[in-house]
Amino acid sequence: MGKVFQKPEAMSSNHTHYCPGCTHGIIHRLIAEVIDELGIMGNTVGIAPVGCAVLAYNYFECDFQEAAHGRAPAMATGIKRVRPDLTVFTYQGDGDLASIGMGEIIHAANRGEKFTTIFVNNAVYGMTGGQMAPTTMPNQKTSTSPFGRDVESVGMPMKVAELLSALQTPAFITRQTVIKPKYITRTKKSIKKAFEYQLANKCFSLVEVVSTCPTNWGMTSLDAIKWTEETLLPYYELGDKKLPE
Amino acid sequence: MQKEVMFAGFGGQGILSIGKILAHAAMEEGKEVIWIPSYGPEMRGGTAYCMVVISDRKIGSPIIKRPQHLVAMNRPSLDKFAPEVKPEGVILINTSLIPVDAGRSDIDEVKVPASDIANSLGSMRSANIVALSAFTARSGIVEFDTMKQCVKNEFMKKPKVLELNMLAVEEGKNAAVN
Amino acid sequence: MGKILMKGNEAIGEAAIRAGCLNYFAYPITPQSEVAEYLSKRLPEVDGVFLQAESEVAVAYMIFGASGAGERVFTTSSSPGISLMCEGLSYVACAECPAVYVNIIRGGPGLGGILPSQADYFQATKGGGHGDYRLIVMAPDTVQEAVEMVMRAFPLAEKYRNPVMILGDGLIGQMMEPVEFPDHLKTEPSNKNDWATTGMDTRKSKTKNIVKSLFLDPAELYKKNIILKEKYDIIKEEEVMYDTYNMDVDYKMLIVSYGTMSRVCSTAIDLMKADGFEVGMLRPQTLFPFPEKEIFAAAQKESVKMLASIEMSMGQMVEDVERSVKGTRPVEWYGKAGGEVPTPEEVIEAVTSMYNKECA
Ligand SMILES: Cc1ncc(C[n+]2csc(CCOP(=O)(O)OP(=O)(O)O)c2C)c(N)n1
Ligand code: SF4
Does B24 touch chain C (CB under 8 A)? Predict the structure, then answer.
């Protein structure tokens, strides 16, 4: 019998520091599997965000750079413009990408920079202790919205995939999740497609992944999955938002 | 006189909060006090510790290399901090999770199965209070009743938890004295 | 009101409210996020404004706008966040808007770490942003002093129409100490705001006010710079604050140290005193203006053989100490950075070895 469970080559053997029930680890694994399948490990550069995934460079077996908070798309642009032969991806949280780094991601997408962004939407700032994010749901309590997100004061949660899809420049933009096996398969397909578009020198690509943060949501892993299904997914609809022409 | 207490254990064992309760008690008694937490990113799994410094005059350095006392709630904490404790200090060992001794003959070792006691009272979560109570009873660092009152104040708003923790206070004291 | 036990970060938030500042804009960052978390609950109770901004770049201009409109406003952040605000600080300083910034410093450079540091000394005292501007910079050593400095910061900012920065470190933000607040809540702004964009109707003259930092005519810009310099010179004369420790004896060595580091040094000084080695300490409470004259005077004492600048950085304030003593005594530096805080024992070792080297 062959091995049933094997670590992708592009994944290092380091233990991750993620909390139990956190989906960051699953998403890492999917990316590593795609890198393996495409055989691009030796030619890929990842960009770590500032957020819980800041140590992502410890978990992948490929070159990595670490950005300042929110600036990963600008760094990716820098790399890709001077070394178009490299495969480049950014891995960013919702505070990183949708708050402080909104300018960078919109402009990179609009210029059609040919790198891939994996965008992890867990509706809070994980690393700094569960503050409100642009993606926090209405009335959701966080450490800086102790009475629940007040949409009168701070607006509705941002739908990043839809927002970026409004740009004209051709791009592949999709929203997926990893809270159940059936979704995981689809997410992996999307990540692979995103990398393939990049390899074909086609376009900017972004895969938004609706994720969990049991620690800062104050939930068990199971409750977090349930809450994602019942509260996040109806608002953050899954599916492809934009395909290249 | 300045006394330092290191509280150490797993994240989630209520380490920081018993440190705070002791700091409150010291303040109630009119002493100078600092509570210094270990702080880090949210991500779990690590050890948590805090230092409480109590003095009758203005406290200088908040950085303490060798504390007077140690409350160790898990094995890594004991291994790490026991060698640093000053001679004649109290080392409280949560024997439910620590199967070894401090390995020192110049300190006062207090062995309390804090987690087991808490469990028998109905919730693991009060193991920290059992330990705080046992430590206070043995070290006399603040008056026992001041500490007890501060535990009360801490849980005033949650009657059920309060009841449990008041039992924990009693059991902790008994365990330390026996 | 009696003493209450409070975390530095929360106490800083409360102090601002007691100083009559009900407007706060910020972005989360360790180790100061508790200020925002505290104020997100507390400000609504007093009808204040709490807004979590999309970035520190945005915060800097929310502050600029609110201050330019004549309202008392403040923010808190930590090193990388303050770096992003430095552009805005330059504008605010040029437009002469009063505002208060708190930097709970963490280890740098770059993303660095999250543990206590004093490595933003240069950034705070020498600029950070572009152009010839200065901040008034204060550095507390206890939670109580942090409270007092925040409360002092607002009237100072308004008196000079100048941004004020409080430099703390991760420890000041994270530790709890007993603190006392004054009972009253100050509400009246201490300046008349007759320069601010409060709307022409609010002025009898009905003339318009413009808050800006653009001066295309070099003569005009030069004039602006002269006005600023004159202001900074007055601040240097009037606003120096410092404290001393063990300086009433014939100390052989003078330590200059501030904030958390100075507390470590005070313990080291006690221990050295017990061993018969007298060391004095001058603790700058304002880093700009720097207590130059006071340090010079303290160094002239006959018994003093040398000075040591002791910092949680790789040697920044030491340049100001050297400048202050004007070559009259040797000046050495000792410190650690990156989130490591020297222990009293390490300070003693460093101080004794530099003394032996220099003066034996
Ligand atoms: C300029 C700057 N501001 C703030 C921070 C503090 N900070 C670190 S991570 C983070 C947010 C992380 O949240 P998110 O991007 O949602 O990722 P998650 O941790 O949830 O995966 C913030 C605000 C920083 N490092 N740099
Ligand atoms: S804090 Fe949240 S996002 Fe970060 S590792 Fe833990 S569960 Fe994951």
Answer: yes
What is the token pair recorded at A199?
């390899």
Distance CA C235, CA C159 (A): 10
pTM: 0.95
HSE-up (13 A, CA, CB side) for residue C46? 22
Which ipTM was obtained for this model? 0.94
- Under 8 Å between Cβ of C83 and C60: no
For residue A41, give the nearest of A63, A67, A72, A69 by alpha carbon. Answer: A63
Q: In chain A, which residue's Cα lies nearest the Cα of B46?
A: A17
Residues B152 and B104: beta-carbon distance below 8 Å: no
C contact chains, 3+ CB pairs < 8 A: A, B
Ligand 2 geometric centre to CA of B9 (Å) = 21
How does DSSP assign A55-72, residue by residue? GGGGTBSSEEEE--TT-H
Instruction: Considering every ligand atom shown, identify the ligand nearest to the alpha carbon of residue B46 and give its number.
Output: 2
Determine which residue's CA is closest to atom 8 belonging to ligand 2.
A22
| Domains located in chain A, CATH noted | 24-242 (3.40.50.970)
Question: What length does chain A have?
Answer: 245
What are the residue boundaries of the structural domains of chain C, listed by start?
4-238, 243-358
* pLDDT by 10s per residue, chain C, length 360: 689 999 999 999 999 999 999 999 999 999 999 999 999 999 999 999 999 999 999 999 999 999 999 999 999 999 999 999 999 999 999 999 999 999 999 999 999 999 999 999 999 999 899 999 999 999 999 999 999 999 999 999 999 999 999 999 999 999 999 999 987 666 666 556 889 999 999 888 889 999 999 999 999 999 999 999 999 999 999 999 999 999 999 999 999 999 999 999 999 999 999 999 999 999 999 999 999 999 999 999 999 999 999 999 999 999 999 999 999 999 999 999 999 999 999 999 999 999 999 887
C4-238 has which CATH code?
A: 3.40.50.970
For chain B, the domains span 3-177
Which CATH architecture does the domain made up of B3-177 adopt? 3-Layer(aba) Sandwich (3.40)
Tell me, yes or no, if the two domains C4-238 and C243-358 fold the same way.
yes
Q: Does domain C243-358 have CATH number 3.40.50.300?
A: no
